[in-house]
């Protein structure tokens, strides 16, 4: 289930003659890292796979839910907050590389919450 998986791409399209066709492509070599997406076991296997992540990251707090990872930081000083968040993101990136996972930069977002005074802008982090 986890070893020698293949990525399969299937495209269904209508040709100029109006007939529906299917295109199927298997990408090689076999995939031996990560967990299968779109399966019932995927979220559970992902949690088992990343179980040690919260203990491996020293900066901030890491929370896991289903197949999501949330990395939280707090500080009264926005410059220190940015530095702490960048250090934590660097740690997280290193952990991902060591565990043969990819950090999806397109889905990695920073969200800031304020309880008093609103800041001018969110800090820029580099994934």
Count the strands? 4
Largest β-sheet summary: 2 strands, antiparallel
Low-confidence stretches: none
End-to-end C-alpha gap: 31 Å
Q: Helicity range of the residues?
A: 25-40%
Q: What is the 3D form? A: elongated
How much beta, percentage-wise? 25-35%
Please give the order of strands in the largest beta sheet: 1-2
Backbone CA Rg: 20 Å
Q: What's the order of the H and E elements? A: EEHHEEH
Class inferred from helices and paired strands = alpha+beta
- Summed over residues and divided by their number, the pLDDT gives a mean of 82
Number of helices: 3
Protein name: Reverse transcriptase domain-containing protein
InterPro entries: RT_dom (IPR000477)
Account of the 3D structure:
By secondary structure, the chain is α+β, with helices and mostly antiparallel strands. The chain has a domain at 34-98. The chain is 26% helix and 25% strand. Strands 1-2 form a two-stranded antiparallel ribbon. A hairpin with a 5-residue loop joins strand 1 and strand 2 (20-31). It is elongated and about 65 Å long. The protein starts with a strand and ends in a 29-residue tail after the last helix.
List the helices and strands and how they pair.
Blueprint: E1 5-14, E2 20-31, H1 42-49, H2 53-56, E3 61-65, E4 68-72, H3 78-98
Summarize this entry quickly.
The protein has 127 residues and is an alpha+beta fold.
Keywords:
two-stranded antiparallel sheet, two-stranded antiparallel ribbon, 3 helices, about 25% helix, about 25% strand
